[in-house]
Specification:
- With 436 residues, the chain is an alpha/beta fold.
- The chain has 2 domains: 276 residues, Peroxisomal Thiolase, Chain A, domain 1 (3-Layer(aba) Sandwich); 150 residues, Peroxisomal Thiolase, Chain A, domain 1.
- Helices cover 31% and strands 18% of the residues.
- The chain contains 13 helices and 15 strands.
- Strands 1, 2, 5, 6, 7, 8, 9, 10, 11, 14 and 15 form an 11-stranded mixed β-sheet that branches. A two-stranded antiparallel ribbon has the order 3-4.
- Strand 1 and strand 2 form a beta hairpin.
- The chain is globular, with a radius of gyration of 20 Å.
- The two termini are 17 Å apart.
Length: 436
């Protein structure tokens, strides 16, 4: 029997704001978050809207020096990780602040380090936080400074703000996590693969607990221009609130989102020994590659179906044991169709009563952070007994013949659930969660 691994903490920064409470409330409300881009002047861009984190002031949550050292993607990671660690009861300073994303003292004057509670071996606590793009704002901003003023204008913090590993690296530094720490990069499967990699670390005995997930801040001129040129983005500039419409017959592309989603995974015996409350079990992980095309999914969703089967087998679950799937559901025509085909291929007639939803309909596509935030949503569906609706599903595509939750949340006892993440490069990652 593999080592039992449980989730003991959740953290989120999303287009609903800071904290898992705001995230969950927003999802259940059926309120979308897409709107005109404010991060830069997008007037001349073919796509002028996205799902931004609203009014995010990093100095309300992080020390001034740390803010200067970090790109927004790492700031999102730090804030989400702190919430997750606090809920897990692993932070010595957690008693001073609620684990709901509440602001710390204004002006960046709070302590720079927030160590773990006494009695926890920091050498065995790790961090695996993914990003698909890393420090884009830092990289593009400093390139403009280089072009305008020459090499002397580039700030020294570029070297530590730009790399993709600095989400996990800065989290480890701030909280003194001396166990395994690295980043995973597999495009839009990155967050799911980070959590799956953390599961592997715990099962292998390399750590007692791992902070895992994804962080992304890619609402950037370069990225928005590139995805638009590739035809991946919805172009509903006149109606952004209805642009992200997974499984709908009239879907025309995804909407870019930003933020971070983080879980604390822990060996069950370690959590029990320190009196932590498990939220759910992470029972399985399926990972594979289509080996087909850099951007298009394999025909019929063959690769996604293989990842689903691997996750079920790893978790020792049958198709009748699963009640809910948090779909990758990007709102792009080929991806939604092939994902539906994959779910149908694996679950057969069971797919007719398998509650499926796409978080991306509400908060957009968080790219490398998508798997992290969707894992948080999946655990909340288990603990709260509700599956959030998929927004903007007016006319379901007959090729996506699934039981997609729509209109309002569905009350449901979720015994087991899957969270799907698929990415450019043919990457497929599926996480299997079980109720405790």
């Amino acid at each position: 029997m593999p080592t039992e691994v449980v989730v003991t903490g959740l953290g989120a920064v999303t287009p609903y704001g800071v904290g898992t409470a705001r995230f969950w409330e927003g999802l259940l409300s059926g309120r979308g978050t897409a709107g005109p881009i404010t991060h830069f002047d997008a007037e001349s861009f073919p796509v002028r809207f996205a799902c931004e984190v609203p009014a995010f002031d990093p100095l309300a949550h992080l020390p001034r020096k740390l803010v200067r050292q970090t790109d927004p993607f790492a700031q999102f990671a730090l804030v989400a990780a702190r919430e997750a660690l606090a809920q897990a009861g692993l932070l010595a300073a957690a008693a001073a602040h609620e684990h709901t994303g509440a602001q710390e003292p204004a002006g960046g004057q709070e302590q720079e380090r927030q160590p773990l509670v006494d009695g926890v071996d920091a050498d065995r606590i790790g961090a695996v936080i993914a990003s698909g793009s890393g420090g884009l704002k830092e990289m593009t901003g400093q390139y403009e400074r280089l072009r305008a003023g020459g090499p002397s204008r580039v700030r020294p913090y570029l070297s530590i703000a730009m790399p993709l590993n600095m989400g996990s690296g800065q989290v480890a530094i701030r909280h003194g996590l001396r166990g395994p720490s690295y980043s995973v990069v597999s495009a839009c499967a990155s967050g799911g693969d980070a959590i799956g990699s953390a599961l592997d670390l715990l099962r292998a005995g390399r750590a007692d607990a791992v902070v895992a997930g994804g962080a992304e801040a890619a609402i950037n001129p370069l990225t928005m221009a590139g995805f638009a040129a590739a035809g991946a983005l919805s172009r509903r500039n006149d109606d952004p609130g209805r642009a992200s419409r997974p499984f709908d017959a009239d879907r025309d592309g995804f909407v870019t989102g930003e933020g971070a989603g983080v879980v604390v995974l822990e060996r069950a015996d370690h959590a029990h020994a320190r009196g932590a409350t498990p939220l759910a079990r992470l029972a399985g992980y399926g990972v594979c590659n289509d080996a087909y095309h850099p951007a298009q999914p394999s025909p019929g969703g063959e690769g996604a179906a293989r990842a689903l089967r691997l996750a079920l087998a790893d978790a020792d679950l049958g198709i009748d044991d699963v009640d809910h799937v948090n779909a990758h559901g990007t709102s792009t025509p080929p991806n939604d169709r092939t994902e539906a085909q994959a779910i149908r291929a694996v679950f057969g007639a069971r797919a007719d009563s398998l509650a499926v939803t796409s978080t991306k309909s509400a908060v957009g596509h968080l790219l490398g952070a998508a798997g992290g935030i969707e894992a948080v949503a999946t655990v909340l569906a288990i603990t709260q007994g509700e599956v959030p609706p998929t927004l903007n599903l007016d006319r379901q595509d007959p090729a996506c013949d699934l039981d997609v939750v729509r209109g309002r949340p569905r009350r449901l006892r979720v015994r087991s659930a899957l969270s799907n993440s698929f990415g450019f490069g043919g990457h497929n990652a599926v996480l299997a969660f079980r109720a405790t």
